[in-house]
Amino acid sequence: MTTPPNDADAGGPTALRILLGANLRRLRESRSISREDAGWQIRASESKISRMELGRVGFKERDVADLLTFYGLDAGGERDRLLALALHANTPGWWHRYSDVLPQWFQPYIGLESAASLIRSYEVQFVPGLLQTRDYAKAVVMLGHGRAPTDEVERRVDLRIQRQDVLARQHPLRLWAVVDEAALRRPIGGAAVMRHQIAALIDAASLPNVTVQVVPFQIGGHAAAGGAFSILRFAEPDLPDVVYVEQLTSALYLDKRDDIDQYAAAMEALCVEASPPEHTVDILKQIAKDLTDAR
User: Which one, out of 48, 116, 188, 220, has a CA that is 20 to 30 A from the CA of 7?
Assistant: First the structure.
């Protein structure tokens, strides 16, 4: 049986489900089979087939096998590969052990983040999570969970820090972060924590797979006035881009072409309006100096 992609590069079950769903949709459409007919074949509804093809539900290996047969894929390496995907798509990701502190609406994002080859993000209020120091991350967690027990706070911080492994894995994530200057001057956790965080950003900006741009105050209004968002792209061609917009108690996952195009245009405009990447270190050093002088 064909071995599925390695979890470190495939992002665990979230990406595998999306990949398997995209393949099932491709096969169904190639045979001009309706979702309703496919659902009848596995004793499920049309909406269940739709959710399967979008990777938003788990897969029963029996259902996948029956669908593959119905779609004319009775044997061969392609059938074996897809059945292997079905098997591994139900394996919990590394973040499963943090389920007690992980909101259900955020779990898909971690899987997508782990699977992505490129993330372009715009941040208004905080330093991007993948670039936060432990002390800064703890201060951010405390803003929303200040009354939580100490061990819960530490687990939330541990989760955030472990997510950063995507930047140092064998095939590292490419991160392009555009950060509003206000987020860099807001002393989350106090001036000392912020100075350490700025120093860490300077180090991160020197990494070959990390680009940081700052949107300075003098820009005024800009293309992304609506708030923070991220665009995730994947190396696997069957995985579409996803726009992630986080809210206070939920999140939006947008994968329609029109939405993606609109957010991509806003991101391109931001990158043009922001200070060039080669100026980032100088800007960060000035902010660090201002924090020191303010003591």
Answer: 48
User: Buried (b) or exposed (e) across 270-289, using 16+ Cβ within 10 A?
Assistant: bbebbbebeebeebbeebbe
Q: How many Å separate Cα 292 from the centre of its chain?
A: 34
**Which two structure tokens, joined as six digits, stand for 197?**
């965080």
Question: DSSP string of 239-256?
Answer: SPPEEEEE-SS-EEEE--
- Please give the Cα distance from 290 to 268 (Å, whole number): 30
Of 91, 89, 85, the closest CA to residue 1 belongs to 85
In this structure, the strands spanning 210-215 and 229-233 are unpaired
What digits encode the pLDDT tens for the residues 141-188? 999 999 999 999 999 999 999 999 999 999 999 999 999 999 999 999
Give CA–CA dist 280/108, Å, rounded.
Answer: 31
CB 15 within 8 A of CB 234: yes
In 3-state terms, what secondary structure has residue 233?
strand
Contact 115, 11 (CB under 8 A): yes
> Starting from the edge strand earliest in sequence, which strands make up the sheet with 118-123, in order?
210-215, 174-180, 118-123, 229-233, 242-246, 251-254
Q: Do residues 80 and 1 lie in contact, with contact meaning Cβ atoms separated by under 8 Å?
A: yes
Angle at 96 between CA 25 and CA 80, to 5 degrees: 35
Quick one: DSSP state of residue 224?
T
Question: DSSP readout, 276-287?
Answer: PGGGHHHHHHHH
Q: How far apart are CA 194 and CA 218, in angstroms?
A: 22
**pTM for this entry:** 0.83
3-class state of residue 180 by DSSP: strand
pLDDT digits (tens, 9 = 90+) for 105-114: 898 899 889 8
